[in-house]
Amino acid sequence: MGRSYFVDETVEEYLVGLQTAPRSCLTGLLAGQSSPQRDFVVLAVQTPHRESEGQPKASRGVSPLDDIDVEWVTEHAKQVSRMLPGGLCILGLFLVTPPELSKDAQNALKRLIFAMDKYITKGRLWELSEEDVTDQVTLHICSKTKKTVCKTFDVKDPKSSAKPADWKYQTGVSSSWPMLTCSVEVDVQIPVSSDITDKCMKDGLRRWTKQIEAAYCLINGRQALDDSELSSGQKKNPKTTHRQTLPARIFVTDEQSELDERSSALVQVCSGSVKVRGVVYCRAYIHNNKPKARHAAQAIKRDIINTVCSRVEMFLEDLLIDEGSHKGLCSGQQALPRRVFAPMPISGLSVCDYMFPDESTADVAERLKEMLDCETPEEDIDTGLEGNQLFSDVSGSEITDSPSDDSSKHVISEVQAENPKNQKAPQYYAAFSSSSGLAANSFSGSRPYSFRKFSTSMAKNSSLRCFVIDMKLPSSSPALYTSRAGRTSSEKRSPAPVAEARIRQNLTVEYSAARQVKQLLRASHPLIPSS
Amino acid sequence: MCCDIIFRLKGILEFACQLDNPNGAQSQGTISKSFQGLQSKVSSKNIVLTVCNSPVLIWPNTGFQSNVESLTEASSCGDILQYIELDDSGTKKSSKKKDKKKSGPTVVNMKLLFEVTEPAGNEAPSLIRVSTQQHCVKMPLPLDCVLSVTTDESMATVCTGLVEALNKQLADMEEVVLRYRKGSSFLVPQPFHFQLPEPAGFTTVIYPAGVPDSQLQDAREDLHNRFKLPSDRPYLRRANAFHFPDAAYKDGYLRNPHIHLNPPNIEDAKLYLVQGVYSYHHYMQDRVDDDGWGCAYRSLQTICSWFQQQGYVETAVPTHTQIQQALVDVGDKEPRFVGSRQWIGSIEVQAVLNQLLGVTSKIMFVSQGSELTTKGRELANHFQTEGTPVMIGGGVLAHTILGVAWSENTGQIRFLILDPHYTGGEDLQTITDKGWCGWKGPEFWDQNAYYNLCLPQRPKTI
């Protein structure tokens, strides 16, 4: 007796409409909500095309199935899971293959599903409870007959075999799902020693996470502790499309277990501290098939934890690119990205994204297109749910202990037209050096998700400037992007003539050096496209 | 006690501060500032009080709001009892009835919570980085405030009172933390509640964790002066802390089973009883089969438990082996005595009390059991001044005397006896019904045997 997946009709439309090249495969994600009795799928997204570097990909394996870029699929899954509000998560994968590959599809799916689950759950701060469903669904679609085969794997058990599952299409699966919302004030102090690492940030947040998990919760004014049903106060009426909004209130307490009883304070000598502070807006959906109040509470709590965790992760990813070695930690206040929401196509649920201070709704819309394969009009993106970032001037003296005079810097820019067909925006590499070495970043016109923060990382080191040259038009003057007090001004200013000359002179000399750096970076950060 | 309800509010607040130089002059200011931050936290709109085992939530700093509509600021606090779900253990029903007669005020336990939703502002999330080397100090403060009131007191008064108590406790904790701090070594300030004689009444004192009572003598002297307490007996040792009626004793021994008894009906007699708290020790406890030989040892254990619970000693009640070893150590017995099943008498009890607890005792000798009826005055005096349990040994038996009912005029006397020969479990019902703890007449004693009584004396100390 397998699991039952109730799938929204829009997902069916999407899957049917997928175009695959002959003899090739297509992967994608399935997202929705699991409950102990049944599962609901509300979203399907194909894996976005990875920018290949103009060289035709030599087929390494025997079949196109071996060419599936597992890392890319899992990275996409991670990025999409950050965009899902509480209650929703990645439920599984789909794979479209030509008929001749169908029999090997299951193995490929099994590999992918385990890899994906492992990657997504790595670094997650909250623990699964006993009631959480650990089955993930795999859907195989034959590109010719459009026939689907649906199976599940228990990702808790590496030896588990595929179990059959039901895949049923329905209209309006999520149309009446109530939406829980709250704004949460966060104020966590994390001591750090020498490096700000993912581990030390996560450890610092762990206590806060446990407080949230154990917190009292009121949903729509009622305590959400026991097995009572979540009463949304509204009779389930399939005709109503009105989605109820249930405000949630969270109350934390600091329980001290008896084992923990200390007689003295915990003192840590640290080389600094990081405080995560501000108000985050949280949202969660709960299915309306007799949900229990405490599951709803759990969904909103997990969203609170996830949204803080994701932003900290993004900050750390940024730091990795930005500061190479972690010498010269700068002090001051830095904005974490702001959470914005956009409607999901047709299902009426919303997805979220994180907007850095220098970004606009256009950037968000671009990312939604890239990650979720959906067009979102910019005016539909709700940016008003969280506060506007106000920058405090980062005074020069606070910033870094390493010498930062311009004369010691070489600014190298280099352009590589990766895909001559892509006329949309110039692709360019821009590099800047800090006292610790060279770092090079590359990004295409639409910022790939890992490198979105390039301009913000520039913004942080206000003593650095970036010169960008479009190599397609070498005679054009370099665009100078200066950053001041954390804000990027994107107007082009003409640089001082001395600087310009130096750039051109350096260009040839350091072109190769930059190449080397790129290789280095690629080795440590595999998503940088090779050139 | 004139009050009917004790509201007890517990919660943990994390104290955190960053010290650049723990030994520097500025550190005290930084610490005080952190405490002030905590005080404003408990006065903020975000604090919520919840009544344990009930759905009641109260916002005390927003002009009193509660999630239960019928509970308003004007409601009398006694109303809160109807919302509390009591534990239905279902055992010892009739002893519950007896308890009702003797039980004191009802305790309403509350917990301190902080709301993190409904924020006052909409500050955008950010990361604030500080890169100076510092000592990060984190310490959980175990807040524990009590407020004793009558049932007709309004909820508003109760809540204001509790918030004030929280603020005061934080101030007291700050004082203790600063006083006992050494550089970056901070001791956790722990609250203890004491039921003191008037005018002090129900009082809370903060002691630093890990510092034994023996080192807090000066602090206690100060407090004895302040609260006008006699200076010859302990009131403020940790062991003297008020035992809340709803809290179970973790060690499982019964406390003061005699309070459940009806006093004997003698004309003109006054009761002279043991003061304070003791535990009932008897045969077969602690998986030691001492049936037939251990009665004096058990009586001695009961006496030791009294000294421990009145705060005179911090050592645990000694085992049979430890008692025997003590007698060997003082030269009273040969080494092979340890591990044997030999009886001991009042003299040995006196010796052990002296050796292990530093307690002196008086020995009273009675040449025949019938003479005990003439000892009414002496025993009455003992219970009035010392109030310690008395061990009596004679014939082939040892018992503990917990008090006398004695008439000065008629000379009639009854003895409150705690019998160590009981071999069953800690069942109060059986113990009181079957007389294992009970009032006995003069016929209880072997009229012809001689008896020795050991009367332990209270040390004159605080």
From TrEMBL, chain A:
Keywords attached to this entry? Membrane, Transmembrane, Transmembrane helix
In which family does this protein belong, per the annotation?
Belongs to the ODR-4 family.
Its primary localisation, in coarse terms, equals membrane
What biological function has been recorded for the protein in this entry? May play a role in the trafficking of a subset of G-protein coupled receptors.
| An individual GO BP term | intracellular protein localization
InterPro entries per the record? ODR-4-like
One Gene Ontology term, aspect cellular component: membrane
Write down what this protein is called: Protein odr-4 homolog
Instruction: Say which domain of life the source belongs to.
Output: Eukaryota
Compartment(s) of residence: Membrane
Query: Could you tell me which PANTHER family the record lists for this protein?
Result: PROTEIN ODR-4 HOMOLOG
Species of origin: Sinocyclocheilus rhinocerous
TrEMBL record, chain B:
UFSP2 second domain segment(s): 32-249
> Which keywords does this Swiss-Prot/TrEMBL entry list?
Hydrolase, Protease, Thiol protease, Ubl conjugation pathway
Biological process terms from the Gene Ontology for this record are: proteolysis
Q: Name one GO molecular function term.
A: deUFMylase activity
Q: At the top level of its lineage, which domain of life is listed?
A: Eukaryota
Q: What residues does the UFSP1/2/DUB catalytic domain cover?
A: 271-454
Q: What cellular component GO annotations does this protein have? A: endoplasmic reticulum; nucleus
What InterPro entries does this protein's entry cite?
A: UFSP1/2_DUB_cat, UFSP2-like_2nd
**What family, per the record?**
Belongs to the peptidase C78 family.
The name of this protein is Ufm1-specific protease 2
Q: Which organism is it from?
A: Sinocyclocheilus rhinocerous
